[in-house]
Amino acid sequence: MTSEIPTLASLDYMPYLEGGEIANEWQHKIGVYAIFDAENVLQLVDYSRDIYLSLRQHLVRCPEQCHWLKGFMISRPSRTILEDIRQAWITENGTLPPGNGSDSERWHDPIDAKVTMTAAEQEKFTKQEERDQIKLLKNVARRLEADILQQLAQRGVTMEIRFNPKLKEQGLLDLK
């Protein structure tokens, strides 16, 4: 990589999904990426050692904000270079994107299905033994998983999305 950092404005917008999938060109690639919503408003600037996997996670966690991408790949991992580019792009944007600020947890952490529990489920959960609590959490996670998969299908996603089954026991959803 040259020592010159590309400006965010100098990079072309690319569709987040092509034919219902994230482009394979991102697989196993190290770099910095910017995610934009349908109106081309910057939502997140981040970096990854495998951009493709990160983009999949973001799509599942924030599907309505993932419409456009800009990215810059580097050949060898260098946290310093990646952080410098990320900071330069955020500065160039003029405001902190929600995914780098107030919505950071939503973009980066596993989805907490427990917050979708009904009042009846919450009451039942507090009165149950641990084994039954795990069953309830799995069912709540499965219900939320079905909602997410339906939302992704409405967005035209055709790639396989599989959640980690072990995390469902904790009421969490994250890709496997």
Concise structural overview:
This protein has 176 residues and is of the alpha+beta class. The chain has helices at 51-61, 79-93, 104-108, 119-127, 130-154, 165-168; strands at residues 14-15, 30-36, 42-48, 68-74, 111-112, 172-173. The protein is 39% helix and 15% strand.
Backbone CA Rg: 18 Å
Question: Looking at CATH, which topology of the largest domain would you report?
Answer: GIY-YIG endonuclease
How many domain units? Answer: 2
Measured between the Cα atoms of the first and last residue, the distance is 32 Å
- Described by the principal axes of the CA atoms, the overall outline is elongated
User: What is the CATH superfamily classification of the largest domain?
Assistant: GIY-YIG endonuclease
CATH hierarchy class name of the largest domain: Alpha Beta
CATH-derived architecture of the largest domain: 3-Layer(aba) Sandwich
Q: Give the count of helical stretches.
A: 6
Biggest sheet strand order reads: 1-4-2-3
Uncertain stretches = none
Question: Which percent range describes the beta-strand content?
Answer: 15-25%
**Overall strand count:** 6
Average predicted confidence as pLDDT: 95
Would you list the SSEs in sequence order as H and E? EEEHEHHEHHHE
In percent, how helical is the residue content?
Answer: 25-40%
